[in-house]
Write a structure and sequence with these properties.
Blueprint lengths: L7 E3 L2 E3 L7 E3 L2 E3 L2 E3 L7 E3 L2 E3 L2 E3 L12 E3 L1 E4 L22 E4 L17 E3 L37 E2 L18 E2 L1 H4 L12
Parallel strand pairs: 1-4, 2-5, 3-6, 4-7, 5-8, 7-9, 8-10, 10-11, 11-12, 13-14
Pfam families: Pentapeptide (PF00805), Pentapeptide_4 (PF13599)
Protein name: Pentapeptide repeat-containing protein
Organism: Pseudoalteromonas luteoviolacea
Length: about 200
C-alpha cells in the first residue's frame, strides 16, 4: 500500500519510507506506525494522524500545514525546526494530543499554543520557542532546554525533574507548583540579578 497513491490508512506499519521533500495532502492515518521513515522537509497538508506512533523517524523541517493530531507519539525521532503552531489543534484542548520521548527537537516552535499535559521526556529541545503558551502540568523530565525561550508562559504544575539548561524568568512566567531539581533550580535565580557565593 503506497502512501503516495492511497488517501486513507488504518492499522498500517510503514518502515523505511523515504518521502523527503514531498507534499502529502488530505491523508488520514489511524492506528499507524512509522519506523525509520524519512519525512525531512515533507509537507503534510491537511492530513490527520490518530493513535499513531513515529519511531526512529526523521521529520526535520517538516511542515504540518493545518494537519490534525490526536494521541500521536514521537519516539527517538528528529523533529527539528517544526512550527507546531501551524497544526490545526482541536478546541478546546484538555490534554496535549502529542507526546515526545527521546526526541531531538531543536529550533522548533510551540509559540502561543495551549498544550496542557504536554509530554516531552528525555528530549533535546534547544532553541525551542515556548513563549505565550500554556504548558500547565507538562512533563519535561530529563529534557535539555538550552537557548529555549520562555516568556508569558504558563508552566503551572510542570515537572522539570532532571531537566537541564533552562533559562526561565520567574517574574515573566507562571511557575506555581512547578517541580525542579534543587541544584538546577538555582538557574531560576538568574532573573534576580544576584550574585551567588
Amino acid at each position: 500500500m503506497s502512501i503516495r497513491e492511497e488517501n486513507e490508512f488504518w492499522s498500517n506499519t510503514f518502515e523505511g519510507e523515504d518521502l523527503a521533500g514531498e507534499k502529502l495532502s488530505s491523508k488520514v492515518f489511524e492506528n499507524c506506525t512509522f519506523i525509520g521513515c524519512n519525512f525531512s522537509e515533507t509537507i503534510f497538508s491537511r492530513c490527520q494522524f490518530v493513535d499513531c506512533e513515529f519511531s526512529k523517524c526523521n521529520l526535520s523541517l517538516t511542515k504540518m500545514d493545518y494537519s490534525k493530531f490526536s494521541d500521536v507519539v514521537f519516539r527517538d525521532s528528529k523533529t527539528v525546526g517544526i512550527d507546531w503552531s501551524k497544526v490545526a489543534w482541536p478546541r478546546p484542548i484538555f490534554s496535549a494530543p502529542i507526546q515526545f520521548y527521546d526526541c531531538l527537537m531543536n529550533d522548533s516552535s510551540f509559540y502561543g499554543l495551549s498544550l496542557p499535559d504536554l509530554l516531552m521526556e528525555s528530549c533535546v529541545a534547544r532553541g525551542v520557542d515556548f513563549r505565550s503558551g500554556d504548558f500547565s502540568n507538562a512533563n519535561f523530565k530529563s529534557t535539555d532546554f538550552g537557548r529555549s525561550l520562555f516568556a508569558d508562559t504558563n508552566l503551572t504544575g510542570a515537572d522539570f525533574s532532571n531537566a537541564t539548561d533552562f533559562d526561565i524568568d520567574i517574574f515573566n512566567n507562571d511557575l506555581k507548583k512547578a517541580r525542579f531539581d534543587r541544584f538546577e533550580a538555582i538557574r531560576l535565580l538568574g532573573s534576580l540579578e544576584i550574585e551567588l557565593v
